[in-house]
Design a protein that fits this description.
Length: about 375
């Protein structure tokens, strides 16, 4: 059966073809080995189930490019070569199930060095991770300790750390490398005037605030093969007066595209605790559309995209090229096959043969193999 579903049509960026446009949004699991930054059995079941569940792309959770860049000691890491092999095992299983493999490269800046969100003394998990966080300026996130302001030379080292981690990600077999530039972490802290009050070449004008993100883009693009996809996740707005704006996001993405960026994953918020965010179904989709049109680049929308019909409409009407879903995959890692059934798209490539007996059209009381 040929599909007329836009959501379930394949999509190609550079040398990577995704079987559909429902992608797993990066979600920290805080379950890595704290002494090695390597994945645990939890990661194998978590990502394995999603890979077998029919998604086109899994973007692994925020993964530290340096130990001190982790949000918590339980974050994954890619700061040393020993971390390549364990991640390669995850990638290999994703590929065996027809899912492409992505990874989000992260430095948490002033939001580093906390504990898992379920073990802290507050809902934000503010128990300390045990090291001093670093940031563009010595301005604390509300309730967190004051970070150390980075020297200019430190910034150059950080650019190199992102590029080195990207090279390791390629060695592990990842198809899609995403820079974490959103949610108030280090790259976003450089972008927003609320957290960047530097007086060197990395602060002040829009060009200067974007310099760190663009140098990372450049360095990674030069370090990875041409057939790999380079993406960035950005918060299109801080939802705060005087903060980072959608227009600045479009300009940054346009500049990054000139340096080899292929795709923009558009979210919002996370920079400050006091932002008034109008959270609701599809509330971030217009920002993905604005970036897609304004910068002429491939985008995905994300955030409370919870129905097959909404996701189909986003892709079919060109509001974005794909959708990412986060918590929906936690509730049910196999939901893509249910959405395919809803939209009349073929199920064959989405349901693993081991599970095909459970497809409703094959399932009838009294009809079972001996
Ligand atoms: C437990 C959890 C961990 C998350 N970790 C990350 C992360 O590592 N990187 C990131 O960019 N976003 C992270 N997010 C945000 C999600 O990727 C996603 O943007 C958000 O949950 C909205 O999508 P949804 O409504 O489909 O869940 C996380 C969200 C959750 C619930």
């Amino acid at each position: 059966m040929a599909t007329s579903s836009a959501l379930f049509s394949p999509y190609t960026l550079r040398g990577v073809t995704f079987r559909n446009r429902i992608w797993v949004s990066p979600m920290c699991q805080y379950s890595a080995d704290p002494s090695t930054g390597q994945p645990s059995a939890w990661h194998h079941q978590h990502y394995g189930a999603m890979a077998a569940g029919g998604t086109g792309l899994i973007v692994l959770e925020a993964t530290g490019v340096l130990p001190e860049g982790r949000i918590t000691p339980g974050d994954l890491g890619l700061w040393e070569d020993a971390q390549i092999e364990p991640l390669a095992a995850l990638v290999s299983f994703m590929h065996s199930q027809g899912a492409m493999a992505g990874i989000q490269l992260q430095h948490a800046g002033r939001k580093a060095s906390t504990s898992e969100m379920w073990s802290g003394s507050t809902p934000l998990g503010l128990a300390e991770g045990g090291w001093t966080a670093e940031a563009p300026s010595a301005i604390a996130f509300e309730g967190y300790p004051e970070p150390r302001a980075l020297e200019t030379g430190d910034v150059w080292q950080l650019v190199k750390a992102f590029a080195d981690a990207a090279v390791r990600a390629v060695a592990a077999g990842f198809d899609f490398i995403e820079i974490h530039g959103a949610h108030g972490y280090l790259v976003h802290q450089f972008l927003s005037p609320l957290t960047n009050q530097r007086s060197d070449a990395y602060g002040g004008s829009l060009e200067n605030r974007c310099r760190f993100a663009l140098e990372i883009t450049n360095a990674i693009r030069e370090a990875i093969p041409d057939d790999k996809v380079l993406a960035i996740r950005l918060s299109a707005t801080d939802w705060v007066e005087g903060g980072w704006t959608p227009e600045e996001t479009v300009q940054l993405v346009a500049w990054a595209k000139e340096r080899g960026l292929d795709h923009a994953d558009i979210s919002t918020g996370g920079l400050t605790a006091d932002a008034a965010v109008p959270v609701g179904p599809l509330y971030q989709v217009p920002f993905a559309t604005q970036v897609k049109q304004g910068a002429g680049i491939s985008t995905n929308a994300v955030g409370l995209i919870n129905t097959a019909e909404d996701a189909e409409n986003i892709v079919a009407t060109g509001q974005a090229d794909a959708v990412m879903v986060g918590r929906g995959f936690m509730r049910n890692p196999h939901f893509p096959s249910e959405w395919a059934a809803t939209l009349g798209a073929p199920l064959d490539s989405l349901v693993p043969p081991q599970y095909s007996v459970a497809r409703w059209e094959h399932y009838a009381p009294g009809r079972r193999r001996a």
